[in-house]
């Protein structure tokens, strides 16, 4: 596989960490040296340093039956104790664990001691409801403290949680409940979004009527939205009538390191969601290690904020398990960035003196579109590190993020990882790595990455190919729930003992890695392989552009054609009187940056792009439009009406 390279991006300078930052950084180059000398021993040392083991492990890695790995298998620990009890016992019970902010403006500060007590009470309720080790619990909640409590209570008793994002439909929820055979659903009456209450309990009721099984015995409901809900006596229970009144005395049991911790469903090419299974010791080791070192965490002084929802893997690893295992103080926010005003995030940063912010490029580009005057109205100087996650970040967004939000001098770490990897795999280490806008850069210590051609041969020098992980890693998925053959076929069939991530990547002259997006987002135009991410980056590099999404559409002449959907910056949109001329200017720009072969067949200027509530652009819906098909399922969109608006604009 060859990939057209945007050479304009190669000219972007590197940013060296300031001497002050480097002098106080958590990570140093010795981490790379130790991992290089003895990779497996390195992870053993990290796990012993970062976690409390009730029974210390003596076996670090068993890779005798690939692709089924075992890490720290003869050791025992309790994940919730590692996230809570040990911090209280160490004298940090009064440290704030969560600064929670509700969208309407209500707030709660919850200390580690208070969070530990609530998790213990919830654990007692779950046990009383008959939930035990290995049982599955579905969690369908807004971003409220009870979501974190529920996850940790399930982990504490050795059950397995399956968190379902609150934006998913009843059908999606039902399929996940059935696949996991969940015995309990934890939900809320509703939650707040964009100034309104969105109902959750009615969706659960609908899902249970659509469920083909009868595994669910109880539904535990948090009262949040105060919306009316139907009630099934004997099945439904209020959180405030059970958990709030339960005993906070609970003795946690230690479980083996390979004990299942959670199932998280991700989209599958067959249409059936894949239940990605993660276990305990290895997952928590890498989540804690990367959270500490990639974000340069100083738990005594930092206030950390990851804006992800707990319904996604980023929320699991970098809202719940990584930060709490490290004793961090963090912000948890229920609502959207633009409610009740477009500066809400920056208001929260100022109020809580957030020092570390981790968010998605989509959000960054949305703020770019609105203009720098909004963040400039707030004092953001508490920030000392910024992070990016979810998709490749284009250099222009990286630089805007650093200069407008970060004041022009603090590190930005661009992280690559997946639901399946469990934790960050590729990222700069601030204080150690020179930073390069747009590039995820290097594998974190202890991780082995390569780029291969289609035939499995390593790609040398400056070229692109298929991103693979060549050695097992602690937080790797242990399988697809109930389907080991699908696990092997999906991730290991192509290259045997190497995990194929499904992403394209290229290596530049410095040896840094640039992510090119999913391989199925690489187009074949007249025999040339072109990355949608690279063309999107080129479009966003134009001073008119705020955001862009590119898809490959069937074309009789070229096989596939490039079709782009572009949102203009607010300052520019008001000046555009000739949409056709603006589209042509953007087409020429891409051709000039990448080459004539990458010139889009069409550039549609639109006001919005179809996004899920997590901010992910649904490119398959844009592909439907580009190819003249009826638009597919829109139920996961934040605004299901947006496709009609876009359709009207592109006619």
UniProtKB/TrEMBL annotation:
**What name does UniProt use for this protein?**
Acetyl-coenzyme A synthetase
- Reaction(s) the record says it catalyses: acetate + ATP + CoA = acetyl-CoA + AMP + diphosphate
Entry coiled-coil feature ranges: none
Q: Which residues bind CoA?
A: 193-196, 314, 526
Q: Which UniProt keywords apply?
A: Acetylation, ATP-binding, Ligase, Magnesium, Metal-binding, Nucleotide-binding
Could you state a single Gene Ontology molecular function term?
A: ligase activity
Q: What is its EC number?
A: 6.2.1.1
Binding locations of ATP:
390-392, 414-419, 503, 518, 529
PTM entry text: Acetylated. Deacetylation by the SIR2-homolog deacetylase activates the enzyme.
Lineage, please? Bacteria, Bacillati, Actinomycetota, Actinomycetes, Micrococcales
- Gene that codes for this? acs_1
Query: What species was this sequence derived from?
Result: Agromyces allii
Q: Sorted alphabetically, which InterPro entries does this protein's record hold?
A: Ac_CoA_lig, ACAS_N, AMP-bd_C, AMP-bd_C_sf, AMP-binding_CS, AMP-dep_synth/lig_dom, ANL_N_sf
The entry sums up its family as follows: Belongs to the ATP-dependent AMP-binding enzyme family.
């Amino acid at each position: 596989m060859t990939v057209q390279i945007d050479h304009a991006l190669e000219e972007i300078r590197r940013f060296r960490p300031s001497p002050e930052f480097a002098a106080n950084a958590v990570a140093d180059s010795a981490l790379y040296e130790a991992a290089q000398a003895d990779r497996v021993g390195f992870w053993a040392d990290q796990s012993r340093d970062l976690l409390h083991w009730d029974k210390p492990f003596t076996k670090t890695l068993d890779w005798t039956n690939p692709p089924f790995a075992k890490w720290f298998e003869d050791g025992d620990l309790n994940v919730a104790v590692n996230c809570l009890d040990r911090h209280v016992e160490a004298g940090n019970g009064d440290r704030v664990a969560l600064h929670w902010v509700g969208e309407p403006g209500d707030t709660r500060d919850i200390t580690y001691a208070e969070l530990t007590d609530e998790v213990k009470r919830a654990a007692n309720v779950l046990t009383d409801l008959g939930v035990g080790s290995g049982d599955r619990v579905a969690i369908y909640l807004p971003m409220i403290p009870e979501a974190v409590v529920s996850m940790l209570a399930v982990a504490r008793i050795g059950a397995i949680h399956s968190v379902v994002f609150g934006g998913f439909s009843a059908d999606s929820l039902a399929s996940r409940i059935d696949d996991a055979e969940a015995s309990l659903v934890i939900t809320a009456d509703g939650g707040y979004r964009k100034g309104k209450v969105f109902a959750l309990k009615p969706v659960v009721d609908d899902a249970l009527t659509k469920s083909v099984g009868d595994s669910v015995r109880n539904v535990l409901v948090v009262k949040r939205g105060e919306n009316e809900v139907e009630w099934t006596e004997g099945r439904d229970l209020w959180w405030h009538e059970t958990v709030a009144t339960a005993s906070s005395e609970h003795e946690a049991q230690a479980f083996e390191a390979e004990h299942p911790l959670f199932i998280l469903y991700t989209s599958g090419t067959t249409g059936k969601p894949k239940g990605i299974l993660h276990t305990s010791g290895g997952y928590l080791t890498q989540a804690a290690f990367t959270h500490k070192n990639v974000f340069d965490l100083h738990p005594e002084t930092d206030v950390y904020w990851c804006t992800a929802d707990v319904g996604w893997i980023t929320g699991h690893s970098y809202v719940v398990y990584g930060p709490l295992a490290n004793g961090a103080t963090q912000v948890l926010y229920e609502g959207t960035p633009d409610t009740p005003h477009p500066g809400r995030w920056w208001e929260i940063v100022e109020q809580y003196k957030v020092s570390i912010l981790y968010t998605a490029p989509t959000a960054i580009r949305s703020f770019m579109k609105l203009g720098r005057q909004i963040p400039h109205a707030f004092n953001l100087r508490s920030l000392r590190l910024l992070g990016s996650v979810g998709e490749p970040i284009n250099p222009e967004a990286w630089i805007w993020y650093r200069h407008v939000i970060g004041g022009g001098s603090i590190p930005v770490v661009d992280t690559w990882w997946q639901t399946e990897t469990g934790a960050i795999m590729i990222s700069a280490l601030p204080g150690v790595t020179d930073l390069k806008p747009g590039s995820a850069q290097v594998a974190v210590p202890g991780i082995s990455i390569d780029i291969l051609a289609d035939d499995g041969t390593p790609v040398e020098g400056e070229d692109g190919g298929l991103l693979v992980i060549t050695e097992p890693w602690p937080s790797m998925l242990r399988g697809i729930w109930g389907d080991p053959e699908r696990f092997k076929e999906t991730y290991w069939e192509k290259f045997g003992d190497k995990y194929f991530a499904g992403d394209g990547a290229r290596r530049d002259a410095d040896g840094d890695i640039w992510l090119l997006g999913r391989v199925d987002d690489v187009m074949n135009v007249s025999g040339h392989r072109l990355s949608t991410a690279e063309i999107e980056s080129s479009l966003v590099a134009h001073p008119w552009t705020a955001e862009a999404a590119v898809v490959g559409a069937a074309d009789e002449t070229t096989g596939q054609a490039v079709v782009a959907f572009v949102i203009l910056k607010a300052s520019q949109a008001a000046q555009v009187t000739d949409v056709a001329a603006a589209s042509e200017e953007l087409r020429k720009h891409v051709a000039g940056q990448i080459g004539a072969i990458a010139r889009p067949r069409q550039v549609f200027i639109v006001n919005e792009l179809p996004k899920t509530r997590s901010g992910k652009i649904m490119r398959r819906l844009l592909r439907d439009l580009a190819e003249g098909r009826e638009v597919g399922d829109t139920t996961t969109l934040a605004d299901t009406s947006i496709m009609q608006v876009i359709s009207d604009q592109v006619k």
